[in-house]
Amino acid sequence: MEIAIWTFIVIVLVALFKTLKFEKYNSLYDERQLLTRYFEIKKINPDSRVAEFKVWEKAAQNLIEQNKNKKVDNIIKFKVFDNTKQLS
Amino acid sequence: MINLELGYFIAKFYLAGYFLCFFLSFNNKYDNKSNLIITTVALINCIFNQYLKEILDFYTFYLGAAFQLLTLLLISIIIHLFFKVKHEKSTVFVYGLYIFIVISYLIIHRVRVVMFDSDEHIMWLINGQSIFTLTLYFLSICVFIYGSKTLWKSQFGRLSSLF
Q1: CB–CB of B108/B126 below 8 Å?
Q2: Burial class (CB within 10 angstroms; exposed 0-12, middle 13-18, buried 19+) of A43
Q3: DSSP labels for B122-161?
Q4: Under 8 Å between Cβ of A6 and B102
Q5: What one-character DSSP code corresponds to residue A34?
Q6: Is A62 a domain residue?
Q7: Would you call A15 and B74 a contact, using CB atoms and an 8 Å cutoff?
Q8: Which of B140, B139, B143, B151 has its CA nearest to residue B24?
Q9: Does pTM surpass 0.95?
Q10: Cβ-defined contact of B30 to A6 (cutoff 8 Å)
Q11: B-interface mutation test, from A8, A18, A39, most B Cβ less than 10 A away
Q12: Domain residues for A24?
């Protein structure tokens, strides 16, 4: 009876170490953790992300409109280089 | 064996503590399911223990307690594997505490039944063992509360993102 419980202790310890090793080297558990993290991030106030994107979009549009008005051709042209381009 | 009335009081206190831990970890929806599993199994063990205590006699008292604790560990491992829940570090720490308790039960059984066959000469050892197990159970309750502390973080942690 006593020996049975000592063997049972050994069995439980072996099972515990086997499960810990299984959990350490199995990719399933990492994937699950990543998925839970993904859903946590997804739940965090989606309006703030949209608002940020809208602000960025407005800034980009303003930049494009300003550039249309103030567009200046600053490129200096030399005929010599044009000739070389044609040759090559 | 310490004074029975004090023992029953401590048992009630610990049952309330286990139930509190179960309630806290049940409310924790987002992470640490491992703590929920071990608390539920330990709570069922606590309740079943009161019935088992009456069945056991002098020669099988400590062996039955040890067997019950080991089945607790095995059942919790099986539930972890079945639901594909990863073991937390706190849960493994509690397993270690329970295995220490089991070894102390087996030692006291050896001394009480095989060497002396009575309680009279080794009351100091039995008292010391009961104090040892009670402190380890108290430590396990503390670890359960530590495991369920993420309740606060998961409920109120994203206030910072709102403002």
Answers
A1: yes
A2: exposed
A3: GHHHHHHHHHHHHHHHHHHHHHHHHHTTHHHHHHHTTHHH
A4: no
A5: H
A6: yes
A7: yes
A8: B151
A9: no
A10: no
A11: A8
A12: 2-71
Query: For the segment A23-74, what is each residue's pLDDT rounded down to a tens digit?
Result: 888 777 776 667 777 777 777 677 777 777 787 788 778 777 776 655 566 6
Q: Which residue of chain B has the CA closest to A16?
A: B77
Q: Is residue A33 part of a domain?
A: yes
Q: Which of B33, B10, B36 shows the shortest CA–CA distance to B22?
A: B36
The ranges assigned to domains in chain B are 12-148
- As a whole number of angstroms, the distance between CA B105 and CA B90 comes to 23
Quick one: tokens of A66? 């300003």
Residue A78 lies in a domain: no
Q: Is B144 within 8 Å of B39 (Cβ atoms)?
A: yes
Domain count, chain A: 1
Q: Flag if A16 and B73 touch (Cβ within 8 Å).
A: yes
The predicted complex's ipTM stands at 0.78
